[in-house]
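User: Batch of two.

Assistant: Item 1 of 2:
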Amino acid sequence: AQLAEEAIIWSSLSHPHILRFYGTVGGDSLHVSLLEYARGGELFDRIVRMAEFSEAHAIEQVSQILSAIEYIHSCGIVHRDLKPENLLLESHDDHAAIKIADFGAAKRMGEHAAKTPCGSLGYAAPEQMLASNSPSTYAEEVDIWAIGVVTYILLSGSMPFDPKTYSPDRLLLSFPDDIFGGVSFEAKGFIRSLLQVDPTCRLSASAALGHNWLRGPEEVYPTTTPLPTPRLLKELKDSGRMKQQWNYAAEVRSTARSRAAQVGKRRWAQTQAAPSTRSRGVSVSSSSAVETAETAETAEAGDASDGAEEAEEEELQLALPAEVAKKLRS
């Protein structure tokens, strides 16, 4: 059910900064998604390889992310799992367009408000973390929080909050001089406006796009001053702290299959496809629902802290199946 819901939501979206979803093939045991091929890979991997990185680069990238999120929210949808792995680049060009991917946790807002804890540790908003222990709900503000975290990392190469001690009562935002010494006051103010613990105090996507940091003249602040982001970001990635995963063991689902669909880590990898597919700009991502359900049952019986990891959906790298090729030709 969750895989079908993702397909419905993703296929309904069309925006220059959202990875295109072409459709799905397969049955109950194998799910194959046809996605736009993002040749540039993950955004943060590109930054690590850059000789220099400045606020000007960050402004361009954050503006694109916000543009896509503004559109998503206008469609009544919340992504709920914005993180570095889901920010891809269209090409290897220096100013390649960002593409937001992975709508496995996305939800349509309306009469059914979001209550389920979900997201990735370090990027999830406080209200997402408290969802399992509170009758309150959350909405699109969780995406704004995640963008604040991503912006902080873009400008510093470090996490704003330690994932090892990540909890609502320990979210104290700071800007160490040894890292943020070359970052403008406007940029710090922008981050503060997104990383508000009270979701009602956060800027909306539309308001964030109008912030002085994104719209102000470049001569007002040092947008071209080289930042230590590439070096520090490499150290951060190597430490593994950017990919600390949420512990979903507390989520209750009626069956192992539905639980697996909810908790599985949904990373749309750029898989190896046949040359004919790559030339069409399509990548193929697949997962086995049966294996996922079996893994979920194991995770239920195992240690709770390992639940999310054991319930991770297996991603298979496949040559283009005949039915996929047929669908592409139709």
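Item 2 of 2:
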Amino acid sequence: MASLLLSTRSTPTFSIYSSSSSKLAPSSLIRGEASVISRAGGRADKSLSSGKRWGWKARPVHGTSSASIFPSQKSFIVNAASEFPLVGNTAPDFEAEAVFDQEFIKVKLSDYIGKKYVILFFYPLDFTFVCPTEITAFSDRYSEFEKLNTEVLGVSIDSVFSHLAWVQTDRKAGGLGDLKYPLISDVTKSISKAYNVLIPDQGIALRGLFVIDKEGVIQHSTINNLAIGRSVDETMRTLQALQYVQDNPDEVCPAGWKPGEKSMKPDPKLSKEYFAAV
């Protein structure tokens, strides 16, 4: 079973964009390696999906053209073990190949520990329909995430070669164009399994999104069915709220909170100040 990060306070030894990590050996590219890191630092062959069933069923989506692309988009059961990622738990570490700036690189999640927040999102497949709208939307807003000291990482089960071809395709032709963040290859599906977003009988990931703080802890997660795209605005708002309460641990953010708006004290008496003002 895949374990969690070695330490939430470990200091990364290099940036994934350093010259030392920008090139990969051809053999590793052909294999499409992606691995979840075990507590001892080795690779875990058994995914988190090998345990008991989690009795959650995704409802079928009707009336969408995606049925022809995802013909088995019906109710299904996602497998999970007792340690599948939950909000408040440490994010499963991984090291995988990715495409960034027209090059093949390696990305290791734990390299961000102590440095940056991470938006980690999964999407089903390259060269599809909803996926490029999400991927380019995050890229177009990347500078805003950068100001919040946050990295964005996209993941699918496609190879780095597919990612590269998609990036090299013009947006008007359904491609991505240049992206501001890495697209990770999860050919082995180990990352998708570790984050419990893999649809077993289809071999692709649901639209899972995880907000991971600088300590490597999952603070927010959402999972959409295949035909439903995600909101960059809501992801940004959630990230800003998370950072606010971490900077102000004696306060909480009410529904729809945005920077500059009134927060509240989690206290029966002190919270009345907020309710009296709204």
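The mean pLDDT is 80.
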